[in-house]
Amino acid sequence: MKTRLISILGMALLFTMLTAQKSMGQFNLTGKWTARCVIEKMNRETIAYCELCPKMLSEDHKRLMFEKFRMVFEKDNLTLVINGISTKVDYKFNEDFDSISFSFKKLSFTFKLLSVVGKNDLYILKNEDGAMLLLEKK
């Protein structure tokens, strides 16, 4: 009986911690972030990456290279600084799914916000296709 009570209390504490962290998600995202592209090798000739990632060919035209970029989150808008060009867009935070949605260059983006335990300065944004961005607080 005592073990069962401890288990129930432990689960309640865990639930409370997760709920508190969830409600703080948008607040923790506010600020300046460096976004780095996460590349996934699909097979010998194909890679997958997020469409937001700035890319360019190497001088010998044999490699695709990806640049980091900046994301500045405010309460209701996001500034993307890609290749030195700043673009401000509105975004929506969905508390039920811990996700953000916005449009950029006529494309719609929805990312789930994944947190790194014990690190308030690192997040992973993952879209519906599985493409990811690593965000590091500036």
Summarize the structure.
The protein is an alpha+beta fold.
Word description of this protein:
This protein is an alpha+beta fold and about 140 residues long. It is about 20% helix and about 50% strand. The strands form three sheets. It has an eight-stranded antiparallel barrel. Strands 2-3 form a two-stranded antiparallel sheet. A hairpin with a 6-residue loop joins β4 and β5. It starts with a helix and ends with a strand. Mean pLDDT is about 85; it is low at about 15-25.
Overview features:
alpha+beta; eight-stranded antiparallel β-barrel; 2 helices; 138 residues
Biggest sheet record: 8 strands, antiparallel, barrel
| Rg over C-alpha atoms, rounded to the nearest angstrom | 18 Å
Strand % is over 45%
The helix fraction, in percent, is 10-25%
Spatially, the strands of the biggest sheet line up as 1-6-7-8-9-10-11-12
Unreliable sequence segments: 16-27
| Number of E-type strands | 12
Please report the distance between the alpha carbons of the first and last residues. 49 Å
SSE pattern: HHEEEEEEEEEEEE
Class derived from helix and strand content: alpha+beta
Q: Number of helical segments?
A: 2
Average pLDDT works out at 84
Task: State the shape.
Answer: globular
